[in-house]
């Protein structure tokens, strides 16, 4: 018994869901919160023993994740995205960590993988994400980039999880367009202002410098350049969309 519920948020993830679930089957429960997928996501998940609840996310990642925490049947929760995989060594470490009974929020090192491309710096450099913690008292805030609120001391685990970011460029740019729109809407909702020169001219330049030079994106060669330039346009796009949200309201 691990007393862990693995939580997976999904929508049209039939290409990913099976491999993801197989890496978290060491947990007592696998719970998939399905945003009414039109493909076989729900069917595949249930065939592998997962419990599936369907709920409309409506762009609110934080709300969906909080619903997942509240629906978990175990005292601990482990968040895993459908395009992520828990390594065998990490699975063993998670079991041992929870067995100790220390109520902490554990951050996991995530190594990013872009299919058919080797990139380990810049925007695809490894990062730490808060994914394992007691369900009691925990919730999530935020739309596009939600923040987990777990009232426990923070600790880091040693072993890694793998994040398979994109299968192809169409998927990359679809996500690019969706995330910049959601980011602009979130900024406006929070009252964040937008200066054409500061945010649309200067901020993207700094975003490129940061990922290409400071975060060593140049070490990834051609793909490092492509991803860094795309990060420039990602930054510019979300502020362009914010700028015109205000402009359409007659506030600029």
Helix content: 40-55%
The end-to-end span amounts to: 58 Å
Number of helices: 7
The tally of beta strands, per DSSP, is 10
Low-confidence stretches: none
Structural overview:
Helices cover 41% and strands 23% of the residues. It has helices spanning 17-22, 41-47, 61-71, 88-99, 169-189, 196-214, 221-248, and strands at 4-10, 29-34, 51-54, 76-79, 84-86, 105-113, 127-134, 139-141, 147-149, 154-164. The mean pLDDT is 93. Helix 6 (196-214) runs antiparallel to helix 7. The protein has 252 residues and is α/β, with parallel strands linked by helices. The protein is globular.
Notable traits:
alpha/beta; 10 strands; globular; 252 residues; two-stranded antiparallel ribbon
Write a concise synopsis of the structure shown.
The chain is 41% helix and 23% strand. It has 252 residues and is an alpha/beta fold. Helix 6 packs antiparallel against helix 7.
């Amino acid at each position: 018994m691990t007393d862990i519920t693995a939580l997976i948020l999904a929508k049209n993830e039939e290409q990913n869901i099976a491999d993801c679930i197989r890496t978290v089957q060491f947990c007592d429960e696998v719970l998939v919160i399905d945003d009414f997928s039109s493909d076989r996501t729900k069917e595949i998940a249930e065939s592998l023993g997962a419990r599936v609840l369907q709920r409309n996310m409506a762009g609110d990642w934080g709300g969906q994740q909080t619903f997942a925490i509240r629906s978990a049947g175990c005292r601990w929760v482990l968040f895993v995205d459908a395009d992520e995989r828990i390594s065998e060594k990490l699975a063993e470490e998670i079991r041992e960590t929870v067995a100790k009974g220390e109520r902490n929020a554990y951050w996991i090192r995530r190594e990013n993988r872009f299919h058919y491309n080797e990139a380990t710096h810049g925007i695809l450099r490894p990062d730490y994400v808060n994914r394992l913690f007691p369900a009691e008292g925990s919730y999530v805030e935020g739309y596009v980039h939600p923040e987990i609120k777990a009232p426990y001391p923070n600790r880091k685990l040693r072993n890694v999880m793998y994040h398979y970011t994109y299968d192809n460029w169409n998927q990359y740019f679809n996500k690019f367009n969706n995330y910049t729109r959601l980011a602009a809407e979130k900024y406006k909702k929070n009252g964040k202002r937008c200066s054409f020169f500061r945010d649309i001219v200067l901020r993207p330049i700094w975003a490129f410098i940061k990922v290409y030079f400071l975060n060593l994106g140049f070490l990834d060669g051609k793909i490092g350049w492509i991803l860094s330039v795309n990060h420039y346009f990602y930054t510019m796009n979300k502020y362009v969309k914010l700028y015109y949200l205000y402009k359409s309201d007659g506030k600029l």
